[in-house]
Structure formats: structure tokens, C-alpha cells
Design a protein that fits this description.
342 residues, mainly beta, Neuraminidase, five-stranded mixed beta sheet, four-stranded antiparallel beta sheet, 31 strands
Length: 342
């Protein structure tokens, strides 16, 4: 094995094949590929890639929840009536049809959890030609079947939700029963009962509010109308974040935590957008555009999500699509890279 001494003071081994188990910080020159290489901490640029697997049914207004490798989606709007009651599970590479929810609620049901333990809260039901009505339904998923749980104290749809099946918060939303009456109330579930806590600091949150994070550290976007504002919950009260988003849209798909999050897509059902922003705990930055438009899509929202990695499936435009995309980076990763000393 020779050494390469062209860089003053640096001796780099010359090899015909890469080391089988390099250590972080190791450098070498590979004669077979004629490249300097190293193994170390490297920042992977943000990028979207189209998923080879799609949902088994197109869905819009189906919030979705889960981690990168364990997700769930149920109900949603697929165009016309009735709404869609069946569920699907994501295993990191494909979606599998699962049993239907206890009642065929329809769209705008809040999701928390993942493929093994999840909950659905509120949402719409189709009440015939007269239109929609908000519900107070609360059902749980145990990995193989759904069961009814204690009802939400109020009837709501399009609520922001964050947490796990046994520990979550829901806030905002609306009540179509009374002519779309918006709410700023917050409710927490502790695994056995509901409690009402602090109100959102804006008076007309309306529908399409979306949350991310955990029950005690939750972020919410004002989403009924295009907005750059968002709010943070600490488990008892809300505050307005001083750092606004850059894109003035609604219907985004959100995941992550109050210290590291992603806001993707958005727009309107007829004019969706492909923009993405990432949150680093102090500011929002524009990131890679998605390959397709998504609004009111399923997203990988779970306290265990590794932000900024995540996914979106379905959503608009139109009555609901089935295709999805995977988001990666920017993230620091220890890996093998080619080097340029020129």
C-alpha cells in the first residue's frame, strides 16, 4: 500500500478498494475509481423522492399520522359521497388495507399515533343532501382493529392534533352543525378522560387547523385562510411564535417538533403548491420543492418522528390522489463521500 503525499503534511493511503469498515475521519485514495475518498460527518441536502408505492385509495382531508416507517390513515374525502371509512397502514415501503373505522365518519377526522396504536377524533359525517355535520366521535386503533372510546366533549372537525393514542391534545376546528362555528378551545386526553385547557390566542381559528409535536409541546398553524402565523402550546397555555413562516398558504402538511419541523405543500384544492419550509428552533427556511402538489394530505406526524425526515401521501388537487413522496434532509450523516482537493 502506497501513500499519497501531494497535500503538504498529509499522508493519505493509496488503495485499490475502499476499506470495509472505515472509521470516522479516515481518508484514502482509491486507484480503481481514481478518487480521493473519506468517511465522516456530511450534510445531506434536502430532497423529495416519489414513493414507488401509493395509497390504495385516493384521499384528501385525511390527516394521517405516524413515523417514517410506521404510519396510518383512515377516512378522508375521495370525491362525491359517501366518505371513505376504510384504513391503511404504512410500513416504510408500502400501504396495506386495514379494517374500517367504527363509523364511516368521512373527512376531516384528526389523527394521532402510528400503525400499531392510533386514535381518530371528531370529523365530519355525511347527513344526506342537507350536507355535513361535525362529530364528537373518538375511536382507537390497536394495530389490528378499531374500537370506540370516550367521546370528545364537543362536536368538531378539522382540529389540530398532536401526541400519541394515549396522550394527545386537539385544538381549534369548526362545527358545521351550527353553520361552521370556529373554536379556539383545547382539549387533552390522558388515556382515560378529557380535560379542557388553554385557548388559542386568535379568535377565529376555523377549520383546516393542523398541529405537530406532542401533547405538552405542540405547534399549530392558522390554516383556515392563508397565513404565515403559528402558535406554540406548552401543555397548559398558548403563545404566538415570533418567527413567521415564509409562504402565505393554507392546507399545509406538518410534522416534527417545536424545535425541528417541516411544513410542506398547501394552497387551495384548485391551486395547490409544491413549496417546503423547515424549522430549526428559531427560524423557518425555504427548502426543496416537492415533485407534486399536495394539500390536506396525509403526513408522518408523531412525537417519535425524526424531523426533518417524513412523508406525504394523497391530498389535493381535486377529490384526492393516492401518490406520495418521501422527504429527506437537510440532515447530518456519517457516510462515505468523494473528496475534491483541487
Amino acid at each position: 500500500m502506497a501513500n499519497y503525499d501531494a497535500v503538504s503534511g498529509l499522508r493519505i493511503p493509496v488503495v485499490s478498494s475502499d476499506p470495509s469498515a472505515p472509521i470516522e475521519g479516515e481518508l484514502w485514495y482509491n486507484t480503481t475509481v481514481d478518487k480521493f475518498r473519506g468517511y465522516g460527518l456530511y450534510q445531506v441536502n434536502a430532497a423529495w423522492s416519489s414513493s414507488p408505492a401509493s395509497l390504495n385509495a385516493g384521499r384528501r382531508s385525511c390527516e394521517g399520522a405516524g413515523t417514517v416507517s410506521s404510519g396510518i390513515g383512515f377516512l378522508g374525502y375521495i370525491g362525491g359521497y359517501p366518505r371513505y371509512g376504510a384504513s391503511e397502514n404504512w410500513n416504510g415501503s408500502s400501504w396495506t388495507n386495514k379494517p374500517s373505522t367504527p363509523t364511516p365518519l368521512g373527512s376531516a377526522c384528526s389523527h394521532v399515533g402510528d400503525a400499531s396504536a392510533a386514535a381518530g377524533i371528531g370529523g365530519n359525517y355525511y347527513s344526506g343532501p342537507s350536507g355535513l355535520g361535525a362529530t364528537n366521535y373518538h375511536f382507537e386503533w390497536n394495530g389490528s382493529s378499531f374500537s370506540n372510546s370516550t367521546s370528545l366533549p364537543v362536536q368538531r372537525n378539522n382540529m389540530a392534533a398532536a401526541g400519541t393514542r394515549d396522550s394527545f391534545a386537539v385544538v381549534g376546528g369548526g362545527d358545521y352543525n351550527g353553520g361552521s362555528q370556529p373554536s379556539n378551545k383545547t382539549f387533552e386526553w390522558n388515556g382515560s378522560s378529557w380535560s379542557e385547557t388553554g385557548n388559542l390566542p386568535y379568535s377565529t381559528p376555523g377549520s383546516y387547523t393542523q398541529g405537530f409535536g406532542s401533547q405538552s409541546a405542540m405547534g399549530v398553524l392558522q390554516a383556515d385562510a392563508p397565513s404565515t402565523a403559528w402558535y406554540v402550546y406548552n401543555g397548559s397555555s398558548w403563545s404566538t411564535s415570533p418567527a413567521s413562516l415564509n409562504r402565505n398558504v393554507n392546507g399545509r402538511s406538518m410534522w416534527g417538533s417545536t424545535s425541528s419541523a417541516v411544513a410542506a405543500g398547501g394552497g387551495t384544492p384548485s391551486i395547490p403548491y409544491v413549496g417546503t419550509e423547515t424549522w430549526n428552533g428559531s427560524s423557518w427556511s425555504s427548502s426543496a420543492d416537492s415533485n407534486s402538489n399536495h394539500i390536506q394530505a396525509l403526513r408522518s406526524n408523531n412525537p417519535g418522528s425524526t424531523s426533518p425526515a417524513g412523508w406525504v401521501f394523497g391530498g389535493g388537487p381535486g377529490n384526492g390522489v393516492s401518490a406520495g413522496e418521501i422527504f429527506a434532509g437537510p440532515i447530518n450523516s456519517v457516510q462515505k463521500v468523494d473528496l475534491d482537493f483541487s
